[in-house]
Amino acid sequence: MALTTTVNAADLEVVHWWTSGGEAAAVAEFAKALDASGKHKWIDGAIAGGGGTNAIPAVVSRMLGGDPVGAAQFNHGRQAEELVAEGLFLDLTDLAKKEGWRDFVYPSSLLDACTLDGRLYCVPVNIHSWQWIWLNNGAFAKAGVDVPSNWGEFVASADALRSAGIAPMATGSQAWQSSGLVTNVLAVSLVGSEAWARVNVDKDAEFAAGPEYAAVFEAAEVARDLSADIEVTDWNLATAAVITGQAAAQIMGDWAQGEFAVANATAGEDYTCLPGLGENKVLQLGGDAFYFPKNKDEDVELAQLELASLMISKQVQVDFNLKKGSLPVRGDVDLSSANDCMRQGLAILADGNVLPGGDMALTRDTVESINDLMVQFWNSDMSAAEVQKKYAALIASAD
Ligand code: GAL
């Protein structure tokens, strides 16, 4: 006879935007863990579009329409801040206390990005960073040049690559990609962490419009030109072009690593990854997190808490992050099977050369306006001076 305390099984619809090969393999680890609990069932609600372009609006309209999903991915920080303030998410504070999240989450600032007025509303699942360039070693060999060790060397190799019929760079045409490339990667890597923080955290619009920051947009013109030989939309198709050697390089976050893994490519042999474009070895402490929309069904709530607990548990953290290419949020897990690129990330984290993520510094509205501007720049011949002026105006109106 069943005990009255038995938890009833619930189906949990989980919305996320992890649809590429590497991402799907990674998120499947969460699904597996929930299903293995023997109680609850993972209903996969993948909605394609990096940065949550399509998933977030869908989650919000389901919540406002009174039909909330079971769990929703966000980049924690400011992306969900209005929804948290409106009290739409389940409070995870008691669960986190009971399990001692503050004792093992490393760095603990990851939890701060989930916190409002001392209460916790999300479970961080990884630390990801934008500042990487991925290079196909074979493409450089074919072009007769050394694999570059920094951005400057890469730019210098472009003519040789083109003569060998190889596109120097592949960049997807979606707004969040050109935007991340310019405002996160080129800015942090080439002009530096302090300058980036002055613009994104302090919102110093004058500095953003000034001569030092101009280097970001000058480099963006170069990157735009080097990406002109190949047309792709999705980021993972750009990664695929690098994996096959059609293109030599892609600037993309650490999630690109998941694609190399699925293709059985080996870091250090088949491809090279340079954090901070080999210029400024830095890690942003942004990442992905799950929030749990409030639900009237008690069984669903128990399933939500169980999923939160599983997502941050030791083995699931390792399994998920090894496939995703990101770093775990726990400092107490065994990462002996980490590859060369992950090791570089871990070393940077240990050195403490870290910055907040863009989504921690800027609101979703500001990020979207910047994305619109950057894709306009990317798909036209807008000059560096013009995009800089427009960008600085957006920083001036950011809060
Ligand atoms: C980011 C997300 C990453 C990655 C990327 C591309 O917003 O945080 O984990 O998956 O989109 O889909």
| Form type | globular
Average predicted confidence as pLDDT: 95
Named at the architecture level, the CATH assignment of the largest domain is 3-Layer(aba) Sandwich
Q: Mind describing the biggest β-sheet?
A: 5 strands, mixed
Q: Give the CATH class of the largest domain.
A: Alpha Beta
The helix count comes to: 21
- What's the N-to-C terminus distance? 58 Å
The CATH topology annotation of the largest domain reads as D-Maltodextrin-Binding Protein, domain 2
Number of domains: 2
Q: Order the strands across the largest sheet as they lie in space.
A: 2-1-3-12-6
Bound molecules: beta-D-galactopyranose
Radius of gyration: 21 Å
- Overall structural class, as computed from helix and strand content, comes to alpha/beta
Q: What portion of residues belong to β-strands?
A: 5-15%
CATH superfamily of the largest domain: Periplasmic binding protein-like II
Q: Could you name the ranges where pLDDT drops below 50 across 5 or more consecutive residues?
A: 1-5
Number of strands: 13
Helical content band: 40-55%
